[in-house]
Every structure is written in structure tokens, then in C-alpha cells.
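REQUEST
  id: r-88c1
  op: predict_structure
  target: Gliding motility lipoprotein GldH
  payload:
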Amino acid sequence: MRNSVLLVLLALLIVSCDSKSVFDSYKSVSDKWHKDSIISFKIQPPDTLNTYNLYVNLRNNNEYKYNNLFLIVEMQFPHGKTLKDTLEYKMTYPNGEFLGTGFADVKENKLWYKEGVIFNESGDYTVNIQQAMRENGKVNGVVNLEGITDIGFRIEKPAAK
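RESPONSE
  id: r-88c1
  status: 200
  body:
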């Protein structure tokens, strides 16, 4: 019992030490991530003056069968402007071993999205994330992407210079 209490306290201490985090949220993906399924995050930035680094976080398991991942990430600004990017991320080392952190069959990846962002409009921003995987030699995309379990979005204060 005493060991359990110590482990919980240690976990809380580690989580609370993340002083760079401004926003960090995950959403679970069903068994398969359908190509038309959009994962959305509503963000209320802390201010309109400072710069921040933005990340797409994701968790994958051994059912993920590709060495890369294509995502469409769209940021909607409070006053109507929209930025849309198609991004590619490496998911494995050349030997096929998954990148990311984690000891079990689930790996967590922190993927760069944008650096030095200033949220210069006050109000809510929305970030939409959609998978855009294609198989070599095929025109149509992967309809149901297996192996991605959670999608997240993170805003951090940049490291002190």
C-alpha cells in the first residue's frame, strides 16, 4: 500500500514539472482512423504577445504498418483565416523499429508542427488533424488506418535562451 502511494506521488510530481506546457490534450482514435475522421482541438491561447512551439502528438501500436505518416493539419483563427498544411513524419528507424518513447507496444511521438507562433488574434483557435496516408502505387488513400491509438495537440513555451 505504501509503495502505491509513493508511486502516485512520484507520477504527480513528474507531471507537474512540465513547466513548458501551455496546452496538452489527447483524443482517442477508434479501432481504425477513417480518412474522413477529423480530430479537433479548441484552443484558447494564453496571450497575443509571446511565441510558442506547436506539436502534434500521437500514440501508435504494433498494428501500424508504415514507416511514415502523412497528416493534414488545419489551424482556424478566431477571425476566419485558415492555414492548412500537409505534413510527413517518419515513424520508424531504417531497421523498422518504431520511433518514439515507451516501453510496451505503444509508442508516443512528439512531432513538430510550427515553431515561434504568435497567437496574434484574441479568441478561440481550432486545430483539425486528419490522416492522409497513401500506399505506393495506389491513387486512393488508406480508408481505415490501423495502429494509431491517440492524437494529441501540444503548445509549449520555447526553451529559454
